[in-house]
Amino acid sequence: MAEGLRIGVFSDTHVGRNIPRVLRDARRRAFRHAFRQAIDIFIENDVDYVIHAGDLFEKRSMTPDDAVFVKWEFYRLVKKVEERSGKKIKIIAVRGNHDGSPLSSALDFITHPMAEYFQVIGEGILEGVKEAYVGDGLSVIGMGYHPYARRKFQEASEILREIEADGYRILILHNYVEAVHDIPPQTPEHSVIRLEDLERLDVDLVITGHHHERLGFKKTGGKLFLIPGATEAIDLGERGPFGVYILDVEKSGLISHKFVELEPLQVIGVRRVVSDKPVELDWFRRRCLEEIESFALNLDRDGILKLNVSGVVAGDEPFPQLGLQEEVQRLMERYDKLIHVEISEDLSSMIRPDVRGVEGRISRDEIVREVFGVLGERAGEAAEIVEDVAMALDEKASERTGLLKELDRRKFSDRWLRFLSSYVGEGS
């Protein structure tokens, strides 16, 4: 590796995502648009490698066309770089939580024996099997997403340490790492990898997906992390800019890096209407309409606005609501580039205590611990079934009903019956 290597890095592309559903086709186009731009940037920079840190797809809502789109974009990347510079590049990816489970992964749709340039790593390691990419001057190891990442990574790290590495060493993950990420408060501890377990690995760089907002490079606990963020706003409230990274490395280390911002297909604005003192409901309505019109006036392409409204309403209405649907619709008809407005209301009345904020701070993990606390040491087994149900719902639930099919439900019913029967048996 006399001249070094150039590596393109991206993550959380979520091709096939169609949320909010009222904009499903527009949002699908936006994720494809971002993905295509990322491929263009990698081509222009004549990369040697591309690393994707998980959530390539949105498995629950993707279509066969989405898989074909990604497959051809990767092929275009490989052929164009070869035409430009004669390089035979390699694309390396790990599975994210939105790509599905190890047994039903969306990445299987784009793997093929003929496509030797594309390799998924991080699945074998979950089963205790040594797995890595080792090439000329670069070694890449990883672990696919797991809901119980803390325990799984502790087990996997023993095997990862045994893998012989060559050149610059990279670890790819798709889980949160403590003291590295801004971890959402509802995230259960068992899904967060401990920094001290990661520190034992002899790697030069840790690339982590799953965190949609870009944090860039961070040195924590003696390890260098890269958190590239997503290529497009996954949920409307997420902050950009979104893009990809280009790294230049040698055996001696990281020589240089740059972040390349992507141009979004749609402008997504996030604005707030807040009052720090009680005001009339009409004040909130008037300010909301002003914010919407101000946003719409400056659009040069399709725009989506998320408006967060909070405060205390003066008056005797116990459950105040804005009721702005008709006014918002008229503004969208007046400004054709304004394609969607989402208003999040957190209004309380002076005549009753506001309890909604308390509800929002209770995580699923806390509820599970409260409900199953009576099981003592076996509460963790019950929590694992709950987490598996959540994964199954995310992956297999009907888009129409949000429920699992009978066959899938029966599997979990049987697990609960076996578990509870064994628990009762222990106590008798």
Please give a structural write-up.
- This protein is an alpha/beta fold and 428 residues long.
- It is 33% helix and 24% strand.
- The protein contains 10 helices and 19 strands.
- It has helices spanning 24-44, 64-85, 149-160, 195-199, 281-297, 325-334, 356-360, 364-372, 379-396, 406-427; strands at 5-10, 49-52, 90-93, 100-101, 104-105, 118-120, 133-135, 138-143, 168-173, 176-177, 192-193, 205-208, 216-220, 223-227, 243-250, 253-261, 267-274, 303-313, 338-349.
- The chain has a 6-stranded mixed β-sheet, with helices on one face. The chain has a 6-stranded mixed β-sheet with strand order 7-8-9-12-14-13, with helices on one face.
- Strand 2, helix 2 (64-85) and strand 3 form a beta-alpha-beta unit.
- 34% of the residues are buried.
List its salient traits:
428 residues; alpha/beta; six-stranded mixed sheet; 19 strands; 24% strand
Write a short abstract of this structure.
Helices cover 33% and strands 24% of the residues. It is an alpha/beta fold.
Shape: globular
Placed side by side, the strands forming the largest sheet appear as 6-3-2-1-15-16
* DSSP strand tally: 19
Radius of gyration: 24 Å
